[in-house]
Amino acid sequence: MANPRIIHIELDEATILWRNADIEQERRIAIFDLIEENAFKPLRAWEAGHHGPYRLRLAVDDGRLSLEVSDEGGQPLETLILGLGRFRRPIREYFAICDSYYQAIRKASAQEIETIDMARRGVHNEAAEMLLERLEGKVETDFATARRLFTLICVLHIRG
After folding, report:
1. How far apart are CA 15 and CA 121, in angstroms?
2. Which range marks the domain in which residue 34 is found?
């Protein structure tokens, strides 16, 4: 029976040099939400008869995102490599807005927090759309899954 979804996700811990409690919380939430509800159909694996569920490992190496797709038992199926040059600006903007958001939560008014959060969601949504474009022809997924994957891509870019 076909089950085109992610059941386990792993981030390359060697890629992540540093993260604070706020970022760690974002990572936990993104992974939890992703596992609870996602749509993920790697097209080459699917066409080869591997209809899910999938395990996914994310890593960043030399400016490229590696999405290592395995079957339920951990058998490698395919590795997708995406250049991340187009994501540099959205990642930088997302980090800047998140920093403002975390500071605002501690001392700003509800109106200020809401304004910052709207800007954060806007950057996040744009980056998710960009990720959907980059995955086109490689992976069929939905917007919510792309948003959560973008959060995890950001976590992989933290340099301290």
Report:
1. 25
2. 6-156
Structure tokens, 134: 């980059």
Q: Per-residue confidence of the chain (160 residues) as pLDDT tens digits?
A: 789 999 999 998 776 655 677 777 878 888 999 999 999 999 999 999 999 999 999 998 888 999 999 999 999 999 999 998 889 899 888 888 888 888 888 888 888 888 888 988 999 999 999 999 999 999 999 999 999 999 899 888 765 4
Q: What is the dihedral of CA 138, 142, 148, 150, to 10 degrees?
A: 50
Residue 142 lies in a domain: yes
Residue type, 126: E
Residue 129 lies in a domain: yes
Q: How far apart are CA 77 and CA 40, in angstroms?
A: 14
- Strands, DSSP E only, in the chain? 6-11, 40-42, 54-61, 64-71, 76-83, 139-141
Asked if residue 1 is part of any domain, the answer here is no
Nearest alpha-carbon partner for 152 in 40, 50, 13: 13
Tell me the pTM.
0.88
Contact 132, 141 (CB under 8 A): yes
Output DSSP code: residue 55: E
- Provide the domain count of the chain: 1
